[in-house]
């Protein structure tokens, strides 16, 4: 007897977790699916605590699935194939809920398009742990390490392609149990959708292979961190590349330069949205190949914004040219992270900011005066500090609305309170298990 189809309508929420409700016997392949939702769900943390917020038991919302964001989720011996559908959280009249991450990204995309006339193309790189391979030390970047990942990686690549996601590289990364997968460039909303779907596919397929995947920013205090690197480029409405000007600082066009300048100016205010866990800030320190300052550089993998080089003689150089944001991790919802980046970019255009000059120094060796001379500052060094910058930011209120800023602060305050006073190893273990 064939079982009923199971479909899960979901949002990537303020904790970067995939939450929603299952629908029995109905498929997004044949009809639009939606489920009921409540405002207070926005306050559920990654530890399933609930922050103190304005909603209480009141309010009814709709989590409306998008037929353009459907992913078949592979089954296994004891698990049926299911459907995963991403959607928007709306009020009953269809207007966006103030704390819907996907709706916030849509608004940011529209704002950037209106102020610049340009569209953003994005590509995500994901670092994560694949636990259970029982590998000996010494196989990072090796063929043996790659082969150990191959059974899982082959199934992952097939599942990604079945979902319309373009896989590029599978890397046995430097850290113990660490892997990285890179994805092809897509329009901003689709890129964020694919980032959400990718995480679900990784965890589903790892389980099927008897493994466990975790996207935790850091597995222990001294471990190699897991980041999310977001590559960004610009296109005109007809698809013409608009990112590169060989005569501009860093090779950036004037619009791209203004956007990067906006990113750097506002990065300290939005870092709580990009690296939103308590342990994220143990990764964002000098000499950990992450990002500790709000700087732009060329070929420097410790810059917050890295200009990615292209071969000048490449006929497709203009199309391939992009910059990479490196201060993000997977505790962040891809929708919220992308919305924050795009609002900062739009602000740079509105303020007509000049293209920043690339830094060339080891910024950790400079004092505050030296950093100030370069127009650079240290990023917040704890979630509490980052949340303080975000909560007091007039720009954040302008971009996201006062209601979201307050709810997000309450959400993250509850998360911090939950781990306050815990031994460090227990905190890292808790995040590893949650993500």
TrEMBL record:
Domain GS catalytic: 101-435
Domain of life: Bacteria
Matching InterPro entries: Gln_synt_N, Gln_synt_N_sf, Gln_synth/guanido_kin_cat_dom, Gln_synth_cat_dom
Keywords: ATP-binding, Ligase, Nitrogen fixation, Nucleotide-binding
Summary of the function given for this chain in its UniProt record: Catalyzes the ATP-dependent biosynthesis of glutamine from glutamate and ammonia.
Family: Belongs to the glutamine synthetase family.
The protein's name: Glutamine synthetase family protein
Organism: Hoeflea prorocentri
């Amino acid at each position: 007897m064939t079982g009923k189809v199971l479909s899960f309508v979901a949002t990537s929420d303020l904790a970067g977790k995939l939450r929603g409700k299952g629908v029995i016997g109905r498929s997004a392949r044949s009809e639009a699916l939606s489920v009921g939702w409540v405002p207070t769900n926005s306050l559920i943390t990654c530890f399933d605590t609930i922050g103190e917020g304005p909603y209480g038991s009141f309010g009814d919302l709709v989590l409306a699935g998008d037929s353009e964001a459907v992913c078949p989720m592979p089954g296994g011996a004891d698990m049926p194939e299911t459907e995963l559908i991403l959607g928007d959280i709306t009020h009953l009249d269809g207007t966006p809920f103030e704390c819907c991450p996907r709706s916030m990204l849509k608004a940011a995309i529209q704002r950037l398009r209106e102020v610049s006339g340009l569209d953003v193309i994005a590509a995500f790189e994901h670092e994560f742990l694949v636990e259970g391979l029982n590998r000996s030390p010494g196989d990072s970047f090796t063929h043996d390490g790659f082969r150990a990942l191959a059974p899982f990686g082959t199934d992952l690549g097939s599942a990604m392609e079945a979902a319309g996601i373009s896989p590029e590289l599978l890397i046995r990364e430097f850290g113990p149990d660490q892997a990285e997968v890179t994805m092809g460039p897509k329009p901003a909303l689709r890129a964020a959708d694919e980032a959400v779907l990718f995480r679900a596919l990784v965890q589903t397929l790892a389980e099927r292979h008897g493994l466990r995947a975790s996207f935790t920013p850091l597995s222990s205090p001294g471990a190699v961190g897991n980041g999310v690197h977001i590559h960004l480029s610009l296109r005109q409405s007809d698809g013409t590349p608009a990112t590169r000007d060989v005569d501009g600082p860093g090779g950036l066009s004037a619009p791209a330069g203004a956007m990067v300048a906006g990113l750097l100016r506002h990065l300290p205010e939005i870092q709580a949205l990009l690296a939103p866990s308590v342990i994220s800030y143990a990764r964002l320190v000098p000499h950990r190949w992450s990002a500790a300052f709000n700087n732009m550089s060329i070929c420097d993998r410790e810059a917050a914004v890295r200009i990615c080089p292209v071969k000048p003689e490449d006929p497709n150089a203009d199309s391939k040219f992009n910059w990479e944001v490196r201060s993000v991790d997977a505790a962040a919802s891809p929708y919220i992270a992308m919305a924050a980046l795009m609002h900062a970019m739009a602000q740079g255009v509105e303020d007509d900011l000049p293209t920043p000059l690339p830094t060339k120094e080891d910024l950790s060796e400079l004092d505050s005066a030296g950093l100030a001379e370069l127009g650079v500052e240290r990023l917040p060094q704890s979630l509490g500090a980052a949340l303080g910058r975000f909560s007091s930011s007039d720009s954040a209120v302008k971009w996201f609305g006062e209601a979201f800023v307050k709810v997000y602060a309450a959400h993250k305050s509850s998360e911090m309170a939950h781990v306050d006073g815990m031994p460090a190893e227990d905190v890292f273990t808790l995040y590893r298990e949650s993500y």
